[in-house]
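Hi R.,

As promised, here are both runs. First protein below:
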Amino acid sequence: MKLDRITSNSNRMNGQPCIRNLRLTVRRVIELLATYSDREELRREFPELEDEDIRQALIFASSYLEDRIIELPDRYETVA
């Protein structure tokens, strides 16, 4: 799969993977998706972020996760 919207430049954002050479990292996009439950609100706050940017950021991030089973304690708390 071609991820042509994910860029990395050692002189920008410390070489972190970014969206279309913007100062918006893949990590930040994932955080924004978790923070903004309303996609329209996210679009208002970040109008430069396009649906294809979000899709490719999710694909890029998921490619770094291994398929494995992780045992969670009975009482699992999330950190937000």
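And here is the second one, sequence first, then its structure tokens:
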Amino acid sequence: MCGRYAVRRDPAALAAEFDAVDRSEGLLGPDYNVTPTKTVPIVVRRGTERSVRPVRWGLVPTWAKDATSGPPMINARAETITTKPAYAESAARRRCLMPAAGWYEWRPGDKRRQPYLCAHRGGASLAMAAVFSAWWSPENTSAPLVTCAVVTTDAVGELAGVHHRMPLVLPADKWADWLDPERDDPRPLLDPDPRLLAELDLTTVSTEVNNMRNNHPGLLEPAEPVPAPAEQGALFE
């Protein structure tokens, strides 16, 4: 986690929801099956303005020699985000929120590949804590490549029954602190908030999610779980 999620609202609606300005420049729209390296919306503060901007999911550190070596760095562990070289600078200076209608998860070892969706039961967008980075290519100095990574923590409660990790989701009263460029130590904000966790629902959804080419609102709808193979029956009893 987190390797797949959904964005239901367009940038204008996200801007209204997050008390921000839409600076997406027409590059974003709803995406019901977001996969790594896609362009995604983040909410960031620059000066006194909070805005919605397009970036690539999969962080490239500022000091990277190139933007394509190795797998995409889509997740940053809360336990090491302030000390690991790939993320420490961003954790101190470049934090953002990644709006999500919810995130998808699978049980490790589940041969059915049954997807689950974790979402706010009231339909509000979730604010996944994230960090971003601006990488400059030696061959192209006209504009940086801006990328991001989701902050993850140990899963808690019902969520831990599906996967051992989960994104750090921040309640609205912590957004300003997370986005505050004057705050250089995010550690007090890195624990899951029990108030928000009580508002999340975990449901089974269609196995259409498993194919990244499928992308429509129906992916967010509850669906009957795939029957478990006989050898896995005990796991789901």
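A quick note on the second one: The mean pLDDT is 93. Let me know what you think.

Best,
J.
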